Amino acid sequence: MNGPGDDARDDTTPSHIGTDVDIEALASACRDDAMATNQRRVLVFAGDRDAGIDAAFDTVRGADVPDDEVTFVTSRDGFRFHRVEPVHASKLLGTTRSIVVLDCHDAFSPNALGRVAGAVDGGGLLVLLTPSLDEWPARHDQFDERLAVPPYSLDDVTDRFRSRLVATLRDHPGIAVVNLDTHTLERDGTHEQGLHFDVPDAFVPTKHVFPTRAYEDCLTADQSETLAALEALRTPGNAVVVEADRGRGKSSAAGLAAGSLAAEGKRVVVTAPGTQNAAEVFERAERLLAELGELASREQYGLTSNAGGRVHFVPPTDVESALDDCDALVVDEAAALSVRLLTSFLDAPAVAFCTTVRGYEGAGRGFAVRFRGHLDDSEFDVSDVRLDHPIRYAAGDPLESWTFRALLLDARPPVGQLVADATTESVEYRTFTADDLLADEHLLREVFGLLVLAHYRTEPDDLARLLDAPNLTIRALTHEGHVVSVALLAREGGLDEETRDHVYFGGRIRGNMLPDVFTSQLRDEDAGIPVGYRVMRIATHHAVRSHGLGSRLLTEIRGEFAGEADYLGVGFGATPELLSFWEDNDYGAVYLSTTRNDTSGEHSVLMLRPLSEAGRELADRHTGYFETRTIDMLSDLLSNLDPDVVRGALRATRSPYTPELSAYEWRTVASAAYGPGLSSIALGAFRRLAVAYLTSPGELDERQERLVVRKVLQAHSWDDVADELEYHSTSQAMRALGTAFQPIVDRFGTPEAHGERDRYLD
Question: What does pTM read for this prediction?
Answer without folding.
Answer: 0.85
